[in-house]
Amino acid sequence: MSHPDPLVKALDDEGKFKIIEQINEGANSYAFKARHIDLQRDVFLKLYAYVPGAETELLQEPQVLVSAVQTPPRCENLVDLYDADHFAHDGEEYLRLQMELVNGASLAARLEQGPVGQQLAIRLVVGVLSGVIHLHSARIVHRDLKPANIVLAGHTPKISDFGSASIVPAQCNSVSASKHSALYVPPESWNTPSIYSYQSDLYQIGIILYELANGPLCYEPEHYLTNAVSRSLKADGKKYSDLSECDKCLACDRGIAELCSSGKLLSHGREAQPFLSRKLAKVVRRATNADLSKRYRTGQEFLSDLNRLNLPNWVPVGQGEYEAEGWKGWDWNVEVLSPSDIVVRRSRPGAGSYRRIAGRTFTSITETFEFMEEFDQ
After folding, report:
1. Is the separation of the CB atoms in 342 and 335 below 8 Å?
2. What is the pTM of this model?
3. Which of 188, 249, 291, 93 is nearest to 178 (CA)?
4. Are residues 327 and 283 in the same domain?
5. How many domains are contained in the chain?
């Protein structure tokens, strides 16, 4: 695509918006902070370039999405979508979305600091699910749910990017898949022909839940270059290091497809945090199951299971050290001195004066966190 300056000028010259700043640029989109001149309010303006021959029903009828987001009762977990239209410039056509400007950080930015804690992860994902359930009720699948597309307005998560959303036609249960963000593409979407259903959105939310509780996935493509893909390259007389950047991406995508189809994507090359609850892990496994018959069928099912969980909000605070605030009336600290010597301390909430629990010895990190989860005062 051409440099955005002429596009900015075209938007300004139209007289509807004054572009304040460009926020980011994607392969097929531009994003701006803009001022709506007539309404005198700042908005988030996103323009998606049409891919010739690949326009979806949603791109052709963008007001359908506006109507779905604004259908009462309004959902606080969807960024407010004020308007959607087509914009043409220099022979290119765009879908232009005019949205609420949220000043908070994305979940991707929050994850740069590490896991947010199990219970906070649950609360955030409950909000995301509420937004997705609202979209599903209007027969819309999002198709690109990931931490970067969810922003925080205070403590409220809001789904913010609708560029890949699609309407599920009447009498159908799925649409073709979007191959953006390979790490979040569900197993059924790697197939030929690809499919993407309501359950596919739930798969992506399961990945987000795991990242929030356990820490971000590895975003280095080469991490997902599996042995099977490497052997296949070798059989073809190729070396990964000699491939073009495009072919390297394709090879890594093949690895991601292999791992997610075998249920090994989340554990590939990295162990789960020792505090990750078996109860939460079970929910994640169901949400991300490659077998659609074993995956959550609806967002409401997923939501119901999450609402039953009450877990300590463990976060790492150092090498082999973890803390959880406000669990069963106490703040907790766990320090792993050695694999068979684990110290558990507690403090009154906010006091910061931790004292070791007397009369209890912990010799297994798994046992320690299981004890803490079931702790009864």
Report:
1. yes
2. 0.91
3. 188
4. no
5. 3
pLDDT at 195 over 80: yes
Residue 223: what are its φ and ψ, rounded to 5°? Answer: -60, -25
Give the residue from 345, 363, 304 showing the smallest Cα distance to 133: 304
First to last CA, the chain: 62
- The span from the CA of 187 to the CA of 195, in Å, is 9
Asked if residue 165 and residue 74 are part of one domain, the reply reads no
Range of the domain at 175: 107-217+266-307
CA angle 111, 165, 170 (to 5 degrees): 140
Residue 165, strand partner residues? none
- CA 131, distance to chain mean position in Å, is 13
How far is the C-alpha of 59 from the C-alpha of 96, rounded, in Å?
10
**What does the pLDDT look like over 111-166, one tens digit per residue?**
999 999 999 999 999 999 999 999 999 999 999 999 999 999 999 999 988 878 88
Q: SS3 of 343, please?
A: strand
Per-residue pLDDT tens over the stretch 11-63: 999 999 999 999 875 556 789 999 999 999 999 998 887 765 555 554 555 67
